[in-house]
Inverse folding.
């Protein structure tokens, strides 16, 4: 589904190489996790895949079911079914959460040549989804993420994911800033969306999120490359021994 | 006498010569003659005047109105679906056929062009304007008092069942209209006054309003979308004890618009909110000039002006709060913000506070910025195309000003229009 080949990326504004040849394939129906120390390039990978400005691709490719992602505008990637759950969801004063979501859902449908969702249908679906994520009606009416707590912001990300029904979901440190209960709620939301046709790439610092969202494959990223790949046990190893051992072993 | 003043006075004479005074001024004759004296003494504004530093007054002061093509649109006029008493002016000329009967329970309506003596209007016509000439001269308002060809005189004694709606149609590309309205809202009464339309190629409008104790005046205005029209408007408002004045103006297009609002609190515990949202693209100058004088205790004033500018459009804000000695417990606030959609556009702001009382809360905030790139990316990452995302953010930016409209229906009407205009532009 998502295929990244030898992806090399530098910052546009300074001569700093962040990704130094990333190779990664996420199959439909699978959950891949990427773990790694600060500054290893995990968040950069998620931004480059979703089309944020400020990065220059110097080599390699990234495709979603064969479509070249890197040539597309962010909204075109979204319409193809790529979704990024932000580490720091952005506050947009003045834009109602509901308006925002409905605009997004219908813009994507329109881009794909599908029929737009009626307001009645939209309301029905969003109410049901919001209930699952314990998001109350008041939160839906408020401006996007404004005045939301850390947990509310992350739940709102998952709500968007549920409404947009992407094929490929990237979760960028979705556990950051969450207490255990909030993390469980978010993880339940993600698990409910796991399905045959959908791939996940979960970026995290800590193993604890992976207790709740069980990965099929775990990658360790360091200094702009995937340095080790394994099963869920790799995450446990990190939890117990930190990154130092793995990095030393790779370097050796 | 300085050379500058001489040239300003000469400009006034040539403007007056071209216009010609209304012949049958009737009861307003004395006020008009006094206005002429004021005008001849002040002369017309020039670029050298501090008060006109950011906005060139030439096209407003020159003898002939510059031509302005009539904007053709197939959409229904603003407020069209609202139950209201319609009073229509076409290029500044009253249209009896298109207007409703000037009768509505709770109010008396007459026209300035009527010759019958209207004593209550005589107490206001030119009077608030004269008062508003100090400490800053407003020669174009004096010009208006002297030259106004017509206008409405509204005395509101209770609360009418529907708003009074002034509709200004523009049909002649060379029209030069001067209208002067007088509104008196008596104690405890409440009036909603709507205005919409481009009015003329060049429009000079003056509104004098006295809002008595415990009374309320709600004013909502949508200035027409003709790209080439020019307008200078003045509102002089005097507020009594526990009265409320709320005014909102939506301006989209127009080559030049200068909206002045002069408010004076004369009774305690009153509230005045003036707000505006302006959307300018290209050859567009929009100037909001506000002067609020607190001369009573415990009054609240609020100014909220938002401008979205692109393709070289210019926005101007001059806002002043003057707190007189003894006007304790004053709560004065002004906010002026612009969203610059490109590097060619500019916003010029001059917020001023002048305070002579010690127990007051006054503040101002003026900002100018581009669209928030992080928010834009967030919207796009959810699949909202670039144009639409920009429009959503633009609407969001303007929302705070539009929120100042108290009536939900009217608020919805103007929000809907803004959305429609933005979307049409986005579609190309």
């Amino acid at each position: 589904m998502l295929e990244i080949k030898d992806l090399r990326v530098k910052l546009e504004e300074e001569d700093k190489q962040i990704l130094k040849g990333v190779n990664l394939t996420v199959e439909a129906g699978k959950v891949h996790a990427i773990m790694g120390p600060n500054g290893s390039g995990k968040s950069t990978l998620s931004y480059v895949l979703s089309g944020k400005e400020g990065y220059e691709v110097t080599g390699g490719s990234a495709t979603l079911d064969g479509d070249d992602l890197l040539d597309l505008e962010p909204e075109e990637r979204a319409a193809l079914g790529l979704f990024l759950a932000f580490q720091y969801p952005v506050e947009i004063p003045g834009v109602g959460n509901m308006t925002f979501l409905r605009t997004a859902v219908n813009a994507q449908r329109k881009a794909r040549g599908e029929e737009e969702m009626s307001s009645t249908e939209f309301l029905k679906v969003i109410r049901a989804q919001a209930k699952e994520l314990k998001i109350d009606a008041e939160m839906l009416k408020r401006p996007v993420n404004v005045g939301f707590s850390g947990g509310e912001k992350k739940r709102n990300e998952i709500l968007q994911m549920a409404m947009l029904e992407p094929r490929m979901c990237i979760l960028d440190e979705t556990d950051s800033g969450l207490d255990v209960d909030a993390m469980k709620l978010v993880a339940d939301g993600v698990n409910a969306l796991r399905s045959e046709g959908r791939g996940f790439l979960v970026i995290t610092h800590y193993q604890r999120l992976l207790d709740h969202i069980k990965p099929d494959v775990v990658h360790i990223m360091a200094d702009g490359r995937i340095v080790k790949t394994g099963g869920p046990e790799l995450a446990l190893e990190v939890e117990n021994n930190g990154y130092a051992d793995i990095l030393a072993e790779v370097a050796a | 006498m300085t050379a500058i003043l001489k040239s300003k006075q000469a400009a006034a004479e040539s403007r007056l010569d071209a216009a010609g005074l209304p012949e049958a001024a009737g009861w307003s004759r004395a006020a008009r003659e006094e206005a002429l004296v004021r005008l001849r003494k002040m002369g017309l504004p020039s670029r050298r005047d501090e008060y006109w530093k950011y906005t060139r007054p030439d096209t407003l002061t020159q003898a002939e109105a510059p031509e302005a093509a009539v904007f053709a649109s197939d959409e229904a006029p603003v407020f069209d679906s609202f139950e209201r008493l319609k009073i229509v002016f076409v290029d500044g000329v009253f249209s009896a056929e298109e207007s409703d009967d000037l009768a509505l329970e709770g109010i008396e309506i007459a026209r300035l062009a009527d010759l019958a003596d209207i004593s209550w209007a005589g107490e206001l016509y030119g009077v608030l304007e004269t008062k508003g000439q100090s400490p800053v001269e407003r020669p174009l308002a004096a010009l208006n008092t002297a030259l106004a060809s017509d206008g409405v005189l509204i005395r509101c004694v209770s609360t009418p069942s529907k708003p009074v709606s002034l509709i200004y149609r523009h049909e002649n590309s060379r029209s030069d209209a001067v209208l002067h309205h007088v509104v008196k809202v008596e104690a405890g009464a409440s009036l909603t006054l709507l205005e919409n339309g481009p009015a003329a190629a060049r429009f000079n409008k003056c509104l004098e309003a006295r809002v008595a104790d415990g009374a309320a005046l709600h004013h909502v205005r949508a200035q027409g979308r003709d790209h080439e029209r020019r307008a200078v408007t003045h509102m002089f408002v005097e507020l009594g004890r526990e009265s409320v004045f709320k005014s909102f103006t939506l301006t989209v297009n127009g080559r030049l618009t200068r909206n002045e609002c002069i408010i004076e609190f004369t009774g305690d515990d009153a509230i005045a909110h003036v707000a505006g949202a302006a959307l300018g693209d290209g050859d567009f100058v929009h100037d909001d000039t506000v002067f609020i004088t607190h001369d009573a205790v415990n009054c609240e004033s609020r100014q909220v002006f938002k401008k979205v500018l692109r393709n070289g459009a210019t926005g101007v804000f001059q806002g002043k709060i003057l707190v007189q000695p003894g006007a304790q417990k004053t709560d004065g606030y002004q906010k002026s913000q612009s969203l610059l959609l490109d590097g060619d556009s500019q916003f010029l702001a001059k917020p001023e506070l002048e305070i002579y009382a010690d127990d007051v809360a006054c503040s101002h905030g003026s900002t100018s910025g581009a669209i928030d790139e992080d928010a834009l990316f967030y919207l796009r990452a959810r699949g909202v195309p670039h144009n639409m995302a920009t429009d959503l953010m633009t609407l969001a930016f303007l929302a705070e000003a539009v929120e100042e409209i108290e009536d939900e229906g009217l608020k919805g009407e103007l929000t809907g229009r803004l959305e429609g205009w933005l979307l049409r532009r986005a579609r190309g």
In short: Residues 372-428 of chain B form one domain. Chain B has two domains: 3-267, 372-428.
